[in-house]
Amino acid sequence: MIKITGVLLIVTGSVLLGMMGKLRLKTRIKTLAGLCDALDIMHSEILFLCTPLDEIFLKLKKNSGPPLDEFFSRCCQWFESESGVPFNKAFRRVLREAAYLNLRAREIDLLASLGNSLGRYSAEEQTKKIVFTRGQLALHLSKTEGDLEKNGKLYTGMSIICGVAIAVIFI
Q1: Roughly what angle, to the nearest 10 degrees, separates helices 105-117 and 87-96?
Q2: Cβ neighbour number for residue 42 with a 10 Å cutoff
Q3: What is the chain's pLDDT, residue by residue, as a tens digit (171 residues)?
Q4: CA dist., res. 159 & res. 170, Å (int)
Q5: Quick check: helix, strand or coil at residue 101?
Q6: Residue closest to 34 by CA, chosen among 87, 113, 100
Q7: So where are the chain's domains?
Q8: Burial call 115-130: b when 16+ CB within 10 Å, e when fewer
Q9: Which residues of 52-89 are buried (b: 16+ CB within 10 A; e: fewer)?
Q10: C-alpha distances in angstroms, 10 versus 5, 17, 63, 64, 168?
Q11: Cα(171)–Cα(166) distance, rounded to whole angstroms?
Q12: What distance lies between CA 21 and its chain's CA centroid?
């Protein structure tokens, strides 16, 4: 009875690990798609309405779902605190602490570079940077969607096979 319980726990654990890998890819896709949408909103707000950054981030916080709502909420906290830290440094810090977004280093660098431009240059220059960043994030989104399609079933299948193989070894 103990062996059967052990085998079930091993197989269940390995399947859960595979499902977590697939879930991480889905979270990345959701985050990247949400960031692309947020950059579209930011582009429109800056170019056509000349909306101040604090209002833009407040709007993004209200209109975004998890996990981006937390990210934009932390950005809004910087605007409310008026801590004397420049926006680009605060934005970079929020990005570094945003492991829950499942972004890769290149994506974080892209967003940090965008943060260096926001609020510092003319509306046209800011929107050019937004368009560039959005295009790069869209490429990363497309690649991640391909990875999910290609590797999603692989993660689940391999985790089941590995779990069963380990269970057979222990029996």
Answers
A1: 160
A2: 24
A3: 788 888 788 888 888 888 888 888 899 999 999 999 999 999 999 999 888 888 999 999 999 988 899 999 988 888 777 667 788 888 888 999 999 998 999 999 999 999 999 888 888 999 999 999 999 999 999 999 998 888 878 877 888 888 778 778 877
A4: 17
A5: helix
A6: 100
A7: 2-170
A8: bbbbbeeeeeebbebb
A9: ebeebbbbbbeebeebbeebbbbbbebbeeeeeeebbe
A10: 9, 11, 41, 38, 10
A11: 9
A12: 15
**How many C-beta neighbours within 10 Å does residue 152 have?**
17
Alpha-helix residue ranges (DSSP H) falling in the chain: 2-44, 53-63, 68-81, 87-96, 105-117, 123-170
The contacts of residue 25 (CB under 8 Å, 6+ apart) are 144, 147, 148, 151, 152
Cα–Cα dist 26/129, whole Å: 27
Distance CA 39, CA 21 (A): 27
C-beta of residue 36 within 8 angstroms of C-beta of residue 137: yes
The answer to whether the CB of 72 falls within 8 A of the CB of 39 is: no
Please provide the size of the chain in residues. 171
